[in-house]
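Field reference: sequence -> structure
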Amino acid sequence: MTAFALPQNWQTPLQAALATGETLALQGFLAAEIAAGKTIYPPQGAWFRALELTPLDKVRVVILGQDPYHGPGQAHGLCFSVPPSVRPPPSLFNIYKELQSDLGIPRPRHGFLEHWARQGVLLLNSVLTVEMAKAASHSKKGWEQLTDAIITLVNDKAEPVVFMLWGAYAHKKAAHVDSGRHLVLKAAHPSPLSAHNGFLGCKHFSQCNAFLVSNGLPPIDWTLPNVIP
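Structure field:
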């Protein structure tokens, strides 16, 4: 069983969380699934891609997803994001629809969100792996405790952070956030099943940038370049 290897700026402050029984059991579970020949998404090298692209000291915004996409070629370690060659899924299409309504940003031609992550937007799923074609198959295996610890670390930062929590599952993570210091924005999930119940029209993107600017921090450039570097 191989121990999790996180980027050093996350690994050190998460040492206690990485040594818990839940995390050790999670590592054993994943090793057994891989040994059994099951297909796991995203690929193992991308499990902690969100942390690689957004170091702890750079986090200004957190967008929280539930678990990775479970279709071939979709998940690459950032919540809601897909590789450049993959068509944006319906939830991401609704995110773009709200972005256009809120800030007038034209809908991008792709679903690749690394541009946001590199600016300090932590695109974190609550559960970081999933078995192919089986949504939520890796929930309650230990990931939730580790991502709770990640959110607690962000909460403990001296600088104010914006938490954008979409859907009831994400709302539960607000228990780990001090809403007196940070901005917690809640809305329905952008899924087509719920987007019309409060996600579309929530104006979270403009509220996020207004909060950052009011605290002397640069706003997020939510425009996604059509040319992928």
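Note: The beta strands are 40-41, 61-65, 121-125, 130-131, 162-166, 183-187.
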